[in-house]
Every structure is written in C-alpha cells, then in structure tokens.
Amino acid sequence: MALIDEIKTRKTFGIISHPDAGKTTLTEKLLLFGGAIQIAGAVKSNKIKKHATSDFMEIERQRGISVATSVMAFNYREKKINILDTPGHKDFAEDTYRTLTAVDSAIVVIDVAKGVEDQTENLVKVCNRRSTPMIVFINKMDREGKEGFDLLEEVEEKLGMSVCPLTWPVGMGQRFKGVYNLWEQKLILFSPHGKQSAEDIIVIDDLTSSVLEEKVGDSLANTLREEIQMISDVYPAFDQEMYEEGMLNPVFFGSAINNFGVKEMLDVFVDIAPNPLPRETEERLVKPEEEKFTGFVFKIHANMDPKHRDRIAFLRITSGTFKRNTNYLHVRQEKKMKFSNPTAFMASKKSIVDEAFPGDIVGLYDSGNFKIGDAITEGEVLHFKGIPSFSPEKFRYINNANPLKSKQLNKGIEQLMDEGVAQLFIKEDSGRKIIGTVGALQYEVIAYRLENEYGAACNYEPVAVHKATWLSWDDDEAFKAFRIRRNKNMAKDKDGAYVFLADSAWSLNTVMESHPEIKFHFSSEY
Ligand code: G4P
Are 251 and 148 in contact (CB under 8 A)? Predict the structure, then answer.
C-alpha cells in the first residue's frame, strides 16, 4: 500500500477520564469490536486500587500492566485504530499529558452520576491547549444520574467545550430504554449485557411516528420528541471542520459495561476522527505524507526485569515509513542508530515489525539513550514542540543515604528523570537536588526503583517550594542582577534551563510584580 493510503487508514487516539468513569471497560468493548480480544476481562485496569495492600506491590503491578496496555491496536472497518493508554491516577498525570502529545484525537468518558470530575478537567485542558478533537461518551446510563441537558451544560462550563449530541438517551437507570441516534435517525433499544439483536435497532426518520410509543411508552416518547426538538433548537449541527479544529464536540450516551451505545460511537469515530496529523517542530511543520521518516519519543518505560536495565522507548511515527534495521539519526545525541527489534502492539500481544507508518507507535529497546521528546529522523535536525514540563505540585530534597553508592544514585536519578518519572531541579546556591512530582506516590516509586534497579539508597527532606517557574528575559544584564539577588530561589532544570523556585503563591506574586524585566512561565515551553 502506498504511504498515503497507509496514513488514511490510521486513527490514533487516547481515552481520558477520571478514575472509575469506565475507561478500561470502554477500551475493552472497543477491542472486542475490533476482534483484538475475544473475551471480556482481558484488559486489566491499570489504576491504582484504593485498597492496595502495599504501594510497592501495587506500583509494580501497575507498571507491568501499563507496559502491556501502553498501546492497543485493532482493526475495524478497514481502519487501523491505535488506542494509547493514559493512566487515570492523578499522581501519574504527567505521563498522561505526554501521551496526549502522541494522539490525534481523544474520547472523554464521563460518569453520568458524577458528571465532570477534576481529573477530566485537567486532561481536557491539556487537549484544549493543542486543539485536540474530542468526542464525549457519557457512561453508566443504566444507573440513575444527572439529566442530559444539565450534563451538557456542565460539560460546556467546566470543560470549555461546545457540544453537539449525536445520540440521546431515552430515560435512565431503571427506566433506561435506549438511545436515539441523531446521526442515523435510529432508535436503539437497550438490552443489558450486550445482548442486542437486529430487532433492537429501529429506523425512525420521522419522530412523530407512533412506533416510538410502541417501543418506549407514551411518556418517554413525548419527552424524547421534545428533547430532540430542543437539541436542534439549541445545539449546533455536527460540523467536521469545527470538530477537527477542536471547536465542536460530539456527545454520545451509553453504558460501556453493557456494551450499549459503544458501537454507535465507534462507527461515528471511524467516520470523523482525524487521520495522523502534522506535528510542529522548532524548525518546521512535519507532515505525515512526507517520504522521509521522522518520529519522536513520548514515553519511556523501564523494563520489568531489574537485572537488565533496559527500557522501552515509545516512538510516535510522524512522517514517512519507519523501517527495521535501517540507520536513523538520534538528533539530540547526534548519532546513528538502527533498531533490530522494534515492537508493535496488538492488544496485549507484542510482535516485531518491519515497517510502521505515521500514527503508529513502535516500542524501541533502549539501554539509556533516550529522553522524552527525542527526535529520530533520516538525517534532518528537528526538535519536536509541544512536550513541555509543567510545574510539579510537590517538592522534596533528595539525599544520598549510602555514600558508597553515590555514582549509582546519580545515574539512577538521571535515568529516572529521562523517563519522566519526576522532575529534577538543582539549586544554584547549594548544588542540592530537588525532586518535583505531581503526587506523593512518585517519591515511593523513585526510592524503590533506585534501590532495586540501581542499588542506591536515598532519603527525602522537606523543602519550602510552592511552584517552579521557567524564566525568560531580553536583557542579559538585568537577568544577571536578578539571579544574584534571588540566588537562594534559583535552580536549573534537567536541561539546564533557569527556574525560579517560589516559596509561596504570595512570594511568587511579589517577585513577579517587582521584576517586570523577567518573564515567569508555568511550563517549560512558552
Ligand atoms: P476506569 O478505567 O475509568 O477507572 O473505570 P473502569 O472501566 O475500571 O470502571 C469502573 C467501574 O465502573 C467498574 O466497576 C466497572 O464495572 C463499572 N462500569 C463501567 N461501565 C459501566 C456502566 O456502563 N454501567 C455501570 N453500572 N457500571 C459500569 P467496579 O465495581 O469498580 O469494578 P469491577 O469489579 O466491576 O471490575
């Protein structure tokens, strides 16, 4: 197949949600449709269980699952669909943000009873920043929850979306009768446990038809008519261009566990979701149809076997054809590399690939060469944009607890930071190392992995840091003066960029106000 045809068959997306909204269940149903798995229960939830017996065990379990579920590919209606897994636990939010740089669209799962939750809000914000096209799936309609219009309002307000429902529920909870498919003008009657038959799908292109009363009763039939009328009065019709620009979000209702409403969404997804999109680099826009291969690393996963400190770097192909055993340029290290066993993922099965195309993800075995954001090309020097670091939420000094193992500790810290487990800041005044994370769990992960994989020991010490802000300036002299004056708050990040570590929100504001000559940024890319 020609490159352009390969590109046209691909859809690469991520499912985002607050934990427990039904991401794993929905993923599984999608894979079942694609025939990538045969039985329910084959996709393991990678969430950290609330009642974990031991965090360490749980972290290891989670890591094992998340290698297997990092990318799940399946074929459906002649398309190759790649689902990129996004950890729902908020302590792993950075990982999810980075994974979202490798998708071309997203599906947002919302629990009908809980509505829009924190983690959904954070992740959608990241998608909005990049104008990622998003489809919304309101899940658990078999349970009592919020009214449809209230939910849409909440989605618009909290997620800043402009919505257009493409299916609409008929009742909910005990009275849930099904959904009306506005896209195809069909009524789809609900039957639990995915036991739907062809008779449950009824074409109703005229909503005044009495078939509606027959199927769902007088009261729900009338409500449905009124609501569909209201939808056409209030909400815009679907518009492909607006959806692709991230300005219009189709909404579907269903119940993942009952495999209900999922196929309706998948069929529309396959029709409308974008094919692999171009990617920005500092140098130029890279288009998928370019003949020459390019790609970037968006995730690094340490191998499960501590005796072999090798890792898997996940590469998103952005243009051209990636080929096995071919010499490519590792741009940051300015060195040639070739990959003898690049891995593709088909549900939980791994296999070696000879070729891969834009939108695909390949796993590269790595002995410590890669960092998140690294570019691989046929020779061109490119730096991909849009993989920023954000200010961590928590900060602690990391100390060496075994002076005989300082080399191992430094190596371990460096490699874990390359993997993106946490962020490292080195203080200007003392040279001390500060680890910044999104959640407290990462400190345990780091200590555990330093010990198990690197034979090093560390301990942590509290440090009064509220936020890390990246700095830029026009006047070098002014920056030098600032650096000297604020020396005790100055640090460098892993790439050597200057960072101001603020003690509190108040002091950050004061410093920002008193130094208009310096610009403070809340992410490393500005
Ligand atoms: P997550 O990956 O987003 O964290 O959610 P997950 O799919 O694990 O689903 C969270 C819980 O919600 C699960 O129940 C799951 O069975 C349930 N669920 C998913 N979709 C639906 C739905 O459409 N209707 C209803 N009523 N429940 C749904 P659990 O009790 O936490 O786990 P399990 O013991 O069932 O696996």
Answer: no
* Protein residue whose Cα sits closest to atom 17 of ligand 1: 22
Residue pLDDT, tens place only, 36-53 = 666 666 566 555 444 444
Q: 45 CB less than 6 Å from ligand 1? A: yes
The atom of ligand 1 lying closest to the CA of 28 is 7
Is ligand 1 within 6 A of the CB of residue 21? Answer: yes
179 closest CA partner among 216, 208, 145, 219: 216
Token output for 62:
């989670």
Residues 347 and 398 in one domain: no
Gap between the Cα atoms of 107 and 249, Å rounded: 10
- Give me the domain span that covers residue 370: 284-377
Residue among 231, 5, 11, 255 at smallest CA distance from 109 = 255
The verdict on 249 and 294 lying in the same domain is no
- Tell whether ligand 1 has an atom less than 6 A from the beta carbon of residue 88: yes
> What is the SS3 assignment for 128?
helix
Is 386 part of any domain? no
**Residue where a domain stops, chosen among 206, 238, 272:** 272
CA angle 281, 284, 290 (to 5 degrees): 100
**Residue 455 near ligand 1, beta carbon < 6 Å:** no
The model's pTM: 0.87
Nearest to 79 by CA among 149, 13, 145, 143: 13
* Ligand 1 neighbour 254 (Cβ under 6 A): no
pLDDT tens digit sequence for 207-260: 888 888 988 889 999 999 999 999 999 999 999 999 999 999 999 999 999 999
- The pLDDT of 328-356, averaged and rounded, is 86
Q: How many domains does the chain have?
A: 3
> Is residue 278 a part of any domain in this protein?
no
Co-location of 307 and 222 in the same domain = no
Of 241, 272, 303, which residue sits at a domain end? 272
Assess if residue 385 is contained within a domain: no
Residues 244 and 295 in one domain: no
Report the percentage of the chain scoring pLDDT > 70: 90
**Is the C-beta atom of 172 inside 6 A of ligand 1?**
no
- Asked whether residue 418 is domain-assigned, the answer is yes
